[in-house]
Amino acid sequence: DIQMTQSPSSLSASVGDRVTITCRASQSIDSYLNWYQQKPGQAPKFLIYGAITLQNGVPSRFSGSGSGTDFTLTISSLQPEDFATYYCQQSYSIPVTFGQGTKLEIK
Amino acid sequence: QMQLQESGPRLMKPSQTLSLTCTVSGGSISSVSYYWNWIRQPAGKGLEWIGRIYTGGSTNYNPSLKSRLTISMDTSKNQFSLRLTSVTAADTAVYYCARAPSLFKGGHSWFAPWGQGTLVTVSS
Q1: Tens-digit pLDDT profile for residues B34-86
Q2: For A16, A103, B31, B35, which has the most beta carbons within 10 A of its beta carbon?
C-alpha cells in the first residue's frame, strides 16, 4: 500500500493568513493526488484533483501543487468557513489511501 | 444532481455480519463511467477506503478487509451494498458511500459525491 503522510497534523491560524499543508507519498504517484475538506459531522468535500485542478465551485484562494511524492495545499487568505480538517488521497493505485488529516483551527 | 444515501443497522454485536446499502438517486449506477465505493471513518480518525464495484460487478477490495468483505450491486433498485462478516469493535465507524469517475482523462479519479454517512457501532 502507498502510505500518505500529512504535515502538520494540526495548525492554528487566523482569518486572512496564508497556510500550506504538505502531503508526502511513500512512493511516486505522479500527479494522482486529490484533496478534500471535512467539517465536523459532514462528509468530506472534494476540492482538488490531479494535484492542481480545482473542482468546479471551489474558491480560487485554494491551490494545489506538486508531483511525484511531495504535494502541497495552499489557502491564500483564510476565511472563517475554511477552518476544517483537510485530507489528501492518492488515486495512483489500489488500495486507495488517505493521509491522516490536518486539522486547521482558529488561532 | 446525484445523491447517495446509506442505510443499515446502527448497532451490532461482535461476530455479526454488517450489511449496508447505498441508494443512488439522480443518476444510474449502471453507467460505465463510474466506480461505486465504500469508505469508513472511525470517530476522530482518518478515512479508510473499503472497496468499490463497477458496472458488470467487478470489484476491488482493500486487502486489509478482503477476507471479510463483499460488495454487490442491484441495478434494478439503483443500489449497491456492503457486507462485512465477523465484525469487531474495530469496525465501529461512520460508513460512507461515494462515487468515483472511471473514465476521466488521464485516469484521474476522486470521490464525489458522498453520502451523508451512517454510524455503525459494534458493541456487546
Answers
A1: 999 999 999 999 999 999 999 888 999 999 999 999 999 999 999 999 999 99
A2: B35
Q: Which among B49, B53, B48, B43 has a CA at the least distance from the CA of B21?
A: B53
State what percent of residues in chain A have pLDDT above 90: 98
Phi, psi angle pair for B105, to nearest 5°:
-60, 140
Write the single-letter amino acid at B99. R
Name every chain B residue with its beta carbon within 8 A of the beta carbon of A99: 46
Residue range A35-76, pLDDT digits in tens? 999 999 999 999 999 999 999 999 999 999 999 999 999 999
Task: Give B118 to chain A, closest Cα distance, Å.
Answer: 10
Grid cell of B25 as nine digits: 438517486
Exposure string over B30-66, b if 16+ CB within 10 A, otherwise e:
eeeebbbbbbbbeeeebbbbbbbbbbeeebbbbeebe
Cβ-nearest to B47 among A31, A55, A98: A98
Backbone angles phi and psi of B81, in degrees to 5: -135, 160
